[in-house]
Design goal:
Blueprint (H helix, E strand, L loop, with lengths): L1 H23 L24 H6 L4 H13 L1 H4 L2 H5 L6 H4 L1 H8 L3 E2 L5 E2 L13 H4 L8 H4 L11 E2 L7 E2 L12 H4 L17 E3 L11 H6 L19 H4 L3 H5 L17 H7 L11 H15 L11 E3 L1 H16 L7 H16 L1
Antiparallel strand pairs: 1-2, 3-4, 5-6
Helix pairs in contact: 15-16, 15-17, 16-17
C-alpha cells in the first residue's frame, strides 16, 4: 500500500517538471479580435492649453529674448561678480540675493526685508529665474498675462519704508513694473538733507546711489529747495501716469538692439505719444547740470569726477549736492520726470547763486 502511494507521488512530481518544460517553450497564438466597444460621448471642443503655452515657451519665441538679454546691462554687466556675494549689495547685484529679497526670505530685527545676512558664496547676474517664477493665473483673458514675474506687489522704499510706489496704470494694469522698483530705488545708506541746519556729508558716495529711477519718476525723494520753479504733484509725470517701466523700456524693438529684454527705451514706444518724434533731451538739462556742478565744486562739496567731499555744509549746499547726485544717478537726463528734474535743478542753482 505504501509503495503504491509513493509511486503515485513520484508520477505527480514528474508530471510537474514536464509541464514546466512545456510552458517554457509555449508560444502565444493570437485569436481573432473582439468586437468594437460602443463609442463614448464626444467632449466639448476647447482651446489647446499646450498650444497657448508654446506661444511663449518655445525656442523660436525665447531666442530673441536670450540675445537681447545677453546684450543688456543685466546680462553683460560685471557688478554681480564684485558685489554679488555681499550681504548688502547682493539684494540687487546677485540673482540669489534678489530672489531672497522679493521672496522675503530674510527679515532683520527692525522688520526690514534683507538678503542672506551671511552673504553668498558666488555672485550670479540677474537672469530669467530672478525675475520670473510662475503664473498667478492662467486665465489671461480675464486676469491678464503677468508674464510669470516674481512679484507685482507695490514696493515700500528702502529709504523710507512708509513710502510706497505702485506703478499701475493703463499701460501696465497688473503692475509688472513694480518688479523693477525693487532695485531701481535709492538705497538707505544716506539720509536726504532736510531743514535749515548745517548737514554733514560723511562719504564720497553721498547720494541715492544708482537707483533713483523710480523715485524721480514718482516725483519724490529729492531735496525740495523752495524756489521760483514749482514742484509737480507726486505721480503727476506723464511717464508715470500714462506709461511705465515696462511700456518704455520693453516696447517693440526698432532694429533688434532696443526694446524687449535689452531694456533700452525704443522710439517705437516714444512716438506712440510723442507723435512729432521722441524728444532728444529735457530743455536746458545739460546746461543746468553743468552750472550746478560748477557751483558745487566752488562750494567744496563736489569734485570734478562727481564724487562728494566729506565735510559739514550749509543746508542749501547739502540739498543741492543731493539733488545733483540724484539726477546724475538717475541716468535718464531728466526724461523720467522732466518737470521734477527741472524744479530740482533750477531751485538748487537759485539757492546757491543767492
Amino acid at each position: 500500500m505504501k509503495t503504491s502511494h509513493l509511486l503515485r507521488s513520484l508520477m505527480v512530481i514528474a508530471s510537474g517538471f514536464l509541464m514546466i518544460q512545456c510552458t517554457s517553450e509555449y508560444e502565444l497564438v493570437q485569436g481573432p479580435p473582439g468586437m468594437d466597444g460602443i463609442d463614448g460621448i464626444d467632449g466639448v471642443d476647447g482651446v489647446d492649453g499646450t498650444a497657448s503655452c508654446v506661444s511663449c515657451h518655445s525656442n523660436a519665441f525665447r531666442e530673441p529674448i536670450r540675445v537681447a538679454y545677453a546684450a543688456s546691462r543685466h546680462g553683460s554687466g560685471s557688478t554681480w561678480a564684485s558685489r554679488g556675494t555681499s550681504a548688502v549689495c547682493s539684494r540687487c547685484h546677485s540673482n540669489d540675493g534678489f530672489i531672497d529679497i522679493v521672496s522675503m526670505n530674510f527679515i532683520d530685527s527692525t522688520g526690514l526685508v534683507i538678503p542672506n545676512p551671511d552673504g553668498y558664496a558666488i555672485g550670479n547676474p540677474i537672469n530669467c529665474s530672478g525675475c520670473h517664477d510662475s503664473h498667478r493665473s492662467f486665465d489671461f483673458e480675464n486676469d491678464g498675462n503677468d508674464k510669470a514675474v516674481r512679484t507685482i506687489a507695490a514696493v515700500n522704499l528702502f529709504l523710507d519704508p512708509n513710502t510706497q510706489i505702485d506703478i499701475r496704470n493703463s499701460s501696465d494694469e497688473l503692475g509688472k513694473s513694480n518688479l523693477c522698483v525693487n532695485c531701481h530705488q535709492p538705497r538707505n545708506s544716506y539720509a536726504i538733507p532736510v531743514g535749515t541746519e548745517d548737514y554733514e556729508i560723511t562719504s564720497s558716495r553721498f547720494g541715492p546711489h544708482y537707483g533713483a529711477q523710480s523715485t524721480l519718476l514718482e516725483g519724490i525723494m529729492g531735496a525740495n529747495i523752495p524756489g521760483a520753479v514749482g514742484y509737480p504733484g507726486v505721480g503727476a509725470a506723464g511717464h508715470r501716469s500714462g506709461s511705465s517701466c515696462i511700456a518704455c523700456h520693453m516696447g517693440p524693438t526698432t532694429d533688434g538692439t532696443d526694446g524687449g529684454h535689452s531694456w533700452k527705451p525704443t522710439e517705437n514706444t516714444c512716438i506712440a505719444c510723442h507723435t512729432n518724434g521722441a524728444p532728444s533731451e529735457v530743455t536746458d538739462y545739460e546746461s543746468d547740470m553743468a552750472t550746478l556742478k560748477a557751483l558745487l565744486i566752488a562750494e567744496g562739496s563736489l569734485l570734478d569726477n562727481d564724487r562728494t567731499v566729506p565735510g559739514v555744509y550749509s543746508a542749501d549746499v547739502a540739498k543741492a549736492t543731493w539733488n545733483y547726485r540724484t539726477l546724475l544717478q538717475d541716468h535718464s537726463h531728466g526724461v523720467h520726470n522732466p518737470n521734477y528734474a527741472r524744479a530740482l535743478l533750477k531751485n538748487s542753482i537759485e539757492a546757491l547763486q543767492n
